[in-house]
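Handout, page 2. Input:
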Amino acid sequence: MSTIPKFASNKKCWQLINRLVFKDSLNCPECGYTLQENYPLRYLWCRSCRKKYRATSYRSSWLYGMKISYRQLFILLYCWQTKRYTETATLLAGVSYTTAQRWMVRFREQLPTEMLSGGLVPILEGAVQMDESYFGKKRYKQAQRIVVGAKDPVSGNVALRITDSRGQECIEQFVEDYIKQGSLVVSDKWWAYDELPLLGYHHQSWNHSKGHFSGTNQGENIWSVSKRHARKLFGGRVLTKNLEILCKEWMARANHSYLFNSPLTFLRFTLVPC
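Output:
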């Protein structure tokens, strides 16, 4: 617990949430009078209009109906941001394994893609490394999914897309959507990249079958990082049923890392003030 000293007090976490939802001034949404705290019963109340308010009582908020304590919320959010094992989160927060998993799914769902400057995935340019990878194994009775990925080694920005195939049409559509025309696309020798120069891109290929990996090591690194993270979440397996929302999280971590600096930063971006 020494790793999260800022959130040792449940009351402090409750106050932080209130100041995000009701703003720092803590004014009544109805009459503008200053709200008073009633921490034992976990609500704010107005001396003027006598109304009571809770940050978790608004249906428009993703905290609606929250059953865990405010301190547990901050701990679970911290564990998710720092890629801790789900088992570790259950021990630190004192919740069940199922509860920890459900809250981590809820955190992913709140990634504010529409609020981010440039969107979730900015346009990549320069020397962009590309690769594809299969997710899921037939022995676990999972349908295999294909993910196409690209990374700008200079900025660290990443683009991912789940596709139906590794064919030329899918590859070229991905390149046109996420990579600036005139950029250099670095890939392996897969044939689907061969006609990129006709679309206005420069292309450089490395033959992996001959042990040439140095030119595409950043692109390959996308899969090692993402699959290791997925195995942490699902007990050693990479489950494809959650792949779409996981891709969203991986892109957010690469392209908007400030969202994962602290629980308070994430809450500032995702909680809508009254």
